[in-house]
Amino acid sequence: MTDLDLDGRTAVITGGAQGLGEGMASALAAAGARVVIADLNAERGLAVAESVAGEFVDHDVTDEVSWQTTLTRAVEATGRLDVVVNNAGIEISSLVVDLDPNDVRRMLEVNVLGTALGLKHAFRAMRPGGLAGGGGVVINVASVAATIAFPAISVYSASKSAIDRLTRVAAAESGRLGYGVRVNSIYPGLVPTEMGAGLAADVARLGLFGSPEEAVQAVVALTPSGRLGTVEDMAAAVAFLASDRAQFINGVGLPVDGGMGM
After folding, report:
1. CA angle, residues 234, 238, 243, in degrees to nearest 5
2. What is the pLDDT of residue 63?
3. Who's near 16: CB < 8 A, 6+ residues apart?
4. Quick one: average pLDDT of 146-154?
5. What end-to-end distance do the CA atoms of the chain give, in Å?
6. How far apart, in whole angstroms, are the C-alpha atoms of residue 21 and residue 24?
7. Hey, which residues does 220 pair with through a beta bridge?
8. 34-93 pLDDT per residue, tens
9. What is the CATH classification number for the domain harbouring 64?
């Protein structure tokens, strides 16, 4: 238990089998939430679910039926739905002149469509008369890439900018229609997860930096806090936004980037 009390609440985290999602699952569970790990990676997802005494659901964020099934299972298992974290995302590095249409479509499907469907079905479940019907919180995971121009991630950056707009419009609709659902997003800075390490390697491979280490140092140089972010930094922000400490914070993007995007 932490001072961010989520005791008895149910949280669904997409992409919760690894990286930031795994850290968010741990933080929400430590605050008392019952956590559902929604991911396509069953082996790792089951391990994370076991580590937080939660549940794993095989989940494809781009599929409507998958969303319906996942949220129904969460409510049936726990009797409620309080938090949905739209964390699942992919990044495929490329120079603009070399963009592959298939890669573009895949990033837009997972990052934008996946988040949009998460909002849609969270609203339907949480609003009055919905499957859970008690209101709640949706937290979308954008990126500092939505606020800066960093080479080789043009489409990823565009997709994360779209998440910012989805967040703000969804919050406005929820308030206007009385859904009782707060919607916010976080903008993580670069974190040395598998995805973060892959990006550093990619920009070096594309000739933009002399080495992955040089790329990382360039990011650090752009960050007033003088370091990379950690999984724990991002997870703490999600736990805060999910809690009643943030009950009057709505429709915003919270930078968790050490000042990089200011």
Report:
1. 150
2. 98
3. 22, 24, 25, 35, 36, 37, 38, 39, 45, 48, 85, 87
4. 95
5. 33
6. 5
7. none
8. 999 999 999 999 999 999 999 999 999 999 999 999 999 999 999 999 999 999 999 999
9. 3.40.50.720
* pLDDT score, position 3: 65
Residue 94 DSSP code: B
Which one of 123, 156, 179, 209 is the catalytic residue? 156
Give the position of tokens 């993007």: 253
Are residues 79 and 197 part of one domain?
no
Same domain, 115 and 184: yes
Using CA atoms, how far residue 193 sits from 19, 97, 190, in Å, is 6, 27, 9
Quick check: is 156 catalytic? yes
Query: Any residues with CB less than 8 A from the CB of 137 and at least 6 apart, and which?
Result: 82, 83, 84, 181, 182, 183, 184, 241, 242, 246
With contact defined as beta carbons under 8 Å apart, do 100 and 151 qualify?
Answer: no
* 177 DSSP β-pair partners: none
- The residue range of the domain holding 199 is 191-228
Residue 154: CB partners within 8 Å, gap ≥ 6?
A: 94, 96, 99
Task: Render pLDDT for 169-189 as a digit per residue (tens, 0 to 9).
Answer: 999 999 999 999 999 999 999
Question: How many domains, in total, are found in the chain?
Answer: 2
Q: Which two tokens stand for residue 143?
A: 């990126």
Residue type, 90: I
DSSP 229: -
